[in-house]
Specification:
With 145 residues, the protein is mainly α. It has two domains: 1-79, no CATH class; 83-145, no CATH class. 43% of the residues lie in helices and 0% in strands. The chain contains eight helices and no strands. The longest helix is centred in the first third of the chain and has 17 residues, at 17-33. The radius of gyration is 19 Å and the shape is elongated.
Amino acid sequence: MEVCKSKSEGGQGVIDLKTQNEALLLKHLMKFFNKEDIPWVALIWESYYEAGSLPSMAKKGSFWWKDILKLLDKFKGLARVNINNAKSFLLWSDMWNDKVPMIAYPELYSFIKSKNTILAEAKTSDNLLNLFHLPLSQQAFGQLT
């Protein structure tokens, strides 16, 4: 394959074409989550996530978008959340403050009412305990505090 040949041999010097392609596709997720001013980004948000939901377990959309979403777990493992309006990431399954809350606080996570809670929803909640099935165990309460 000409692409994988070294540059000195007349190729493009790509060592691993699969990794190269994944990196290029991950850029689409970065543009999507940063809500860049690009027509396809606005179209995806308006078509599939207008109600404020975010991509998670349910992969919906066009064939192209579903293929991009297959890389969502890799993206979340690489991306660091910058909390601005808190509407573009999930409270429990996205990495923020160098932790994925569902992994860092497993006992507390076992009491949540919704796995797809957006941080903006949690921030506007009158009482944080409304996010959980009560009563919390002592260990879960310790993780909450």
